[in-house]
Amino acid sequence: MSKVVKNVEYGLEKIFEGAQDFLPLLGTDYVEFYVGNAKQAAHFYKTAFGFQSYAYKGLETGCKDYASYVLAQDKIRIVLTTPLSSKSPINEHLAKHGDGVKVIALWVEDATKSFEETVKRGAKPFMEPTVEKDEHGEVVRSGIYTYGETVHIFVERKNYKGIFLPGYSAWKSDYNPTSVGLKFIDHMVGNVGWGEMNECVKWYEEKMGFVNFLSFDDKQITTEYSALMSKVMSNGNGRIKFPINEPAVGKKKSQIEEYIDFYEGPGCQHIAVATDDIIKTVMELRARGVEFLSAPPHAYYEDIPNRLGKHMDMMKEDMNVIEKLAILVDADEEGYLLQIFTKPVEDRPTLFFEIIQRMGAKGFGAGNFKALFESIEREQEKRGTL
Ligand code: FE2
């Protein structure tokens, strides 16, 4: 028996086998990065991005293989992990990919069932269901591979009252820069290689029960020089959104190809984090040294009333401030959105962040793609990789 369920919030229609979603997801649990020096990376994310010290695991807590620093800001949790010796398998990942996202962890009711349902449909196992315990209760985790060497870990924490996961201690620090107003993860984008996007889309449909609710072809995402294609995947309740990009042929090198070259394979391209006051957040981030892509030409800002149409009256932000901060503005049927992209946060031109404020719009800033990519191309030109 199948049942059509309409997702009111995102207008998604999804056909479930049986009465319910086989992989119900409650939200993003955490994002884990493998980095060369977690202690220093943690300082950067606290100072520059306003994350707070949250939990720690390492030599002092009895973990001899690696050190992990957990940082939090509102609902966002990031984990920075570094191996403590040459014997750790994490080194291979680091040598190949550089600093980057290893784990996109998803919060679930039942991690064992999540593993069984996805593996039965063909997902490659990364971690068998594992129970971890301490005096605060127990957590069950399991994991599967997604694109490249990136993994999804399912986290079941309904029987846990501790700080993060068993084995972690609360991390108290004397250095506590304030938050910059980042609230939650809006979406996370994956880059895959030539001809691999549809395969990846099919993987999310089959193995995880996601639906493709927006697609952009290379004619929509193109500049004079380079192009890419993108399909946005969403889970049933719309809380988890993963756009998937692949390079497309242009006169010069696609930014997606540049990523794949430097990451040496598919991986997470950007993490979009939501704020409800982008002007305040971006002013704060800039003051703390976060580097953003340069502003599009003035004509882009003159054209905003055309792009916003009926939503222009709703817009409260001062256009001069928006332009000065290089924030981009786009609209869809339901409202508008403000967004801005950082430069890559590592020396390899790989992972970057997006800051986004949605004012009703559900899209991903398609109207900004051209301006954005021209800005990325100016950076590629400087790197000699265009
Ligand atoms: Fe994005």
Gist of the model:
By secondary structure, the protein is an alpha+beta fold. The protein has 10 helices and 19 strands. The protein is globular.
What does this structure look like?
This protein is of the alpha+beta class and about 375 residues long. The N terminus is likely disordered. β14 and β15 form a beta hairpin. Helices cover about 25% and strands about 35% of the residues. The protein folds into 2 domains: about 140 residues, 2,3-Dihydroxybiphenyl 1,2-Dioxygenase, domain 1 (Roll); about 200 residues, 2,3-Dihydroxybiphenyl 1,2-Dioxygenase, domain 1 (Roll). The strands form 3 sheets. A 9-stranded mixed β-sheet has the order 8-9-10-7-3-6-5-4-11. The chain has an 8-stranded mixed β-sheet with strand order 13-14-15-12-16-19-18-17. The structure holds fe (ii) ion. The site of fe (ii) ion (FE2) has 6 residues, from β12 and β16.
Outline: globular
Q: What structural class do the secondary elements suggest?
A: alpha+beta
CATH architecture of the largest domain: Roll
CATH class of the largest domain: Alpha Beta
- Indicate the mean pLDDT: 92
Following the backbone from N to C, one meets helices and strands in this order, namely: EEEHEEEHEHEEEEEHEEEHEHHHHEEEH
Helix % is: 10-25%
Number of strands: 19
Radius of gyration: 21 Å
Task: Note poorly predicted spans.
Answer: 1-13, 15-19
In DSSP terms (H or I, runs of 4 or more residues), the helix count works out at 10
Q: By CATH's scheme, which homologous superfamily of the largest domain applies?
A: 2,3-Dihydroxybiphenyl 1,2-Dioxygenase, domain 1
Main sheet specs: 9 strands, mixed
Beta content comes to 25-35%
CATH topology of the largest domain: 2,3-Dihydroxybiphenyl 1,2-Dioxygenase, domain 1
Number of domains: 2
Q: Quote the distance from N terminus to C terminus.
A: 52 Å
Bound molecules: fe (ii) ion
